[in-house]
Amino acid sequence: MGFDFQHMMELWPDISKAFGETLYMIGVSLAIAIVIGLPLGIVLFVTDKGLFLQNRFVKSVLGFVVNMIRSIPFIILLVALIPLTKMLVDSTIGPAAASVSLSVAAIPFFARIVETSLREIDKGVIEAAVACGATPWMIIKDVLLPEAKAGIVQGITITIISLVAYSAMAGVVGGGGIGDLAIRFGYYRYDNTIMIVTVVILIVLVQILQQLGDWTSKAIDKR
């Protein structure tokens, strides 16, 4: 069976609901990733060798944890975090439950992007701030973040697009959203119409997010 417009309109309420669930999962997990991943990325950078808060132990421990989580495929992470998800949201299915695994996956991903963005800053700028007697907090607030903001915005864009893919994957285990719709209708029922619609929605969503991210990054990059 090919594309059926009438069938799509009949299922439009389900499609709209699934799209809303996808946006909810992405929004929640992105917010948590930024709140935790941004400071984590900063700590990974400033505790590195030769920097003003050098601490080999902290750097090694945090680096190990970040790399460990990033090394686990997301579908396996979804299953492994079921006990934690049950404890936090009292459910293992639905958008709220999927947001737990999405957040855990997004935090180390975004933290590494932040760290990479900070590494692109000219070391001379940091050394000048240290020589002027600036405190670590002042260096982070007035030097590191302003200098790396364009890269961090690009990192947020990359993280959002990765979360779109992850959220679709969460549908495999009943996470809700576009992925769940594609699995239930497109795969189990061989519904080509729904499969085509979900693919188009995801493509359009990613294109819009990428364009917004690129525009924002260029707008705030004063270099």
TrEMBL record:
Entry membrane topology: Multi-pass membrane protein
Tagged with keyword Oxidoreductase: no
Query: Its domain of life?
Result: Bacteria
InterPro entries noted in UniProt: AA_ABC_Transporter_Permease, MetI-like, MetI-like_sf
**Where, subcellularly, is it found?**
Cell membrane
Please give one Pfam family short name: BPD_transp_1
UniProt lists the family membership as follows: Belongs to the binding-protein-dependent transport system permease family.
Q: What PANTHER family does its record include? A: ABC TRANSPORTER PERMEASE (PTHR30450), D-METHIONINE TRANSPORT SYSTEM PERMEASE PROTEIN METI-RELATED (PTHR30450:SF1)
Main location class: membrane
Query: Domain ABC transmembrane type-1, which positions?
Result: 19-213
Q: Which organism is it from?
A: Planococcus liqunii
The name of this protein is Methionine ABC transporter permease
- Which keywords does UniProt give here? Cell membrane, Membrane, Transmembrane, Transmembrane helix, Transport
What residues form the membrane-spanning segments?
23-45, 57-81, 93-111, 152-178, 190-209
